[in-house]
Amino acid sequence: MSVNDDGQLSSSDSFWEVGRYMRTVKRCDNGYQLCNHLRKLIEERNEIEKKYAAMLTEWTKKWNNFLDKGPEYGTTLGAWKGVLTEADGVAELHNAMAEKMMDDVHTKIKFWQKENYHKSMMHFKETKEFEDNFRKAQKPWAKRLAKVVATKKDYHVACKTEKSTANQENNSRADSSVSQEQLKKLQDKLKKCQQEVENTREKYTAALNDLNSYNAKYIEDMTEVYKRSQDFEQKRIDFFKKIFFQLHACLDLSVESRFSQIYTNLHSTIGNVDPNKDLKWWSSTHGVDMGMNWPAFEEYSPELQSISKRAKSNLGSADGGIMITSIKHSREDSYGSYSEQPSAPPPQQQQQQPQNYKTQSSTNSYASAPRNDMDRFYVTDFASPVPREFVCVWTLKSMLRARSESPDGENPFGDGDMYDENEEGEEPPSAGWMVRALYDYVRAEDDELEFKAGDVFLQVALEDEMGWCRGKKGEDIGFYPKNYVERI
């Protein structure tokens, strides 16, 4: 260490300089922050492992769904599944790795950090102790150094003044214009300056000797505090080394027996692929080795006929149709007996629970019919509960629609008019009537008109025998039950 001519300390980066111990003191704070950073590192790796495991799991789910519905089969399908099983196994291991890092490593860092760094109001207790001890050890030496700096400055000033006075006295002796009295004054001043130089030199030398004599004590005291600081830092580094080894144990899957077993199983699964076995299975399931119910002669049975509906229906059956047997057409009786009962009751009537005709065959007749030569309907193989009146109404409504769609209004079911005149004898105007919906109506078939309560639309045709009208709502035209609307 040296002091320049201006009395200032020379630039030095040595630990022994005044205040330079603060870097060592700050190392204690840095150790606490490094614990935080290491915990953050482990938390981020934990998130990466979890996301990777989640992505693998989602990937296997997607491809398992494909394989469950896809065209692959047999032992080759097993190989596909084996690849997905490997991904599930790896995902499980990475989830376990993430949990282990948090439980075995992250938790230990947090605990060790709490045990070794004690937070005070503004600083850590350990940091404050190191700073106070370093300052205490350096303070006596710093005082001596300050005295050295001051005495050196005084000495250099005295030397400067003495040199200036000597130059003046020398010049005065050569100058004849300077009186003897002035020359004597300069000579007296020069003697005083020389004495001052001598005095300041002695003080400077004494201060420097005192400083140097204290260097050993200064080194000893500072070294003692520094050693404690080193021991504290060594404890942190040793702990970090142990933590890194534990982190390595969590990350190293090469020593995990389950990891190697995953790929042993995958190799075995792929080796189980047998083309001959797969092709034989295909032949027996979809190929030439399948059994066959070869066609045989069947006697005609007039008792059973299958009638399928033109439009989509709410009735669920195996083939989408209704089986009707022993039909006797008597238009006047069957239609007339049901003309006063609308086929689609209002919503309050639709809440009744219908009977279930899914598994039984029964003969359904109209309870209100006055004659015995009614149509008899045998309904079989319904996939959902069907009310008795629905079958009759649906059949008659289909007949009416078929007629309305026939060219020139021809009746496709035989002679006779299936429409009666309006009970009021009123013919519809060319533009039709405006009606307002009383209830919501949801179409059951494509040719029906759907509306909400309060909707206003146009009725374009008279009511038929079954209580169905034809209306137009916007661009939609279709059938609807009369008792769902009122004329405006």
Describe the structure.
- This protein is elongated.
- The strands form three sheets. It has a five-stranded antiparallel beta sheet with strand order 8-7-6-5-9, with no helix packed on it. It has a two-stranded antiparallel ribbon with strand order 1-2. Strands 3-4 form a two-stranded antiparallel sheet.
- The chain has helices spanning 22-69, 74-116, 125-174, 180-251, 257-271, 275-286, 331-338, 388-405, and strands at residues 305-308, 321-324, 363-364, 377-378, 433-437, 456-461, 468-473, 476-481, 485-487.
- The chain starts with 21 loop residues before the first helix and ends with a strand.
- Helix 2 (74-116) runs antiparallel to helix 5 and helix 3 (125-174) runs antiparallel to helix 4 (180-251).
- It contains eight helices and nine strands.
- A hairpin with a 6-residue loop joins strand 6 (456-461) and strand 7.
- Mean pLDDT is 79; it is low at 304-395 and 412-425.
- Helix content is 55%, strand content 8%.
- With 488 residues, it is α+β, with helices and mostly antiparallel strands.
- InterPro entries: AH/BAR_dom_sf, F_BAR_dom, FCH_dom, SH3-like_dom_sf, SH3_domain.
- It is a peripheral membrane protein.
- It is found in: Endomembrane system.
- It holds the Pfam family SH3_9.
- Its main location: membrane.
